[in-house]
Structures are given as structure tokens and as C-alpha cells.
Amino acid sequence: TSCFIVCYSIANRTSFDNVKSKWLGELNRYGKHVSKLLVGTKLDLRIPNSKQFVNTVEGERLAKKIGDYKLRLYEQLVAKKDTQGEQLVICFSSE
């Protein structure tokens, strides 16, 4: 395996918390030297200034905090524009 894409729903804070509390530990255990990409999905569902949703600053903060996991990129995707996801994977795989 050369990379893991770690996704959470911007509209579901529990999924974001699970990335921090569960998934990154698992990835570190089984893929310590593998690049990881953090992706926030469902950007189109976010309501500005709502505490219910994960905001961009929180996502970027998590990406920086886990820099030792070789997390090289933080992105947010809109589900209705699936070409954006294709571009993200192509960009990440070319690095």
C-alpha cells in the first residue's frame, strides 16, 4: 500500500472525532511509513458558522497536528462534483 485516504463527513462531527480517536491510530499501526491524505466530504451540506459542522480551520488544524503521520494534504470535497475527487486522487498519486 502506498497511501491511505482518510475521509470524514464535514456534516458529521462524530466522523471527524473518529478520525482523531480511532482511524489515525490504526493507520499508524499498520501503515506507519505510508502517506496519508485527510479529506473532508459533503462540503455542500455545511452551514456557515454552525457548531454542528466541522469547519475548515479544524480540518487544517488536524492535518497539521498529525504531520508526523506524513499527512501531506487536506482537502474538502463536494459530493455533487465527483470530478473533484478524481482530480484529488490524481494530484495525490503524482506526488
UniProtKB/TrEMBL annotation:
One of its GO terms (biological process) is small GTPase-mediated signal transduction. Transmembrane segments: none annotated. The keyword GTP-binding applies. It comes from the Eukaryota. It holds the Pfam family Ras. Keywords: GTP-binding, Nucleotide-binding. One of its GO terms (molecular function) is GTP binding. SMART domains: RHO. The keyword Cell inner membrane does not apply. PANTHER family: RHO FAMILY GTPASE. This is Uncharacterized protein. It comes from Puccinia striiformis f. sp. tritici PST-78.
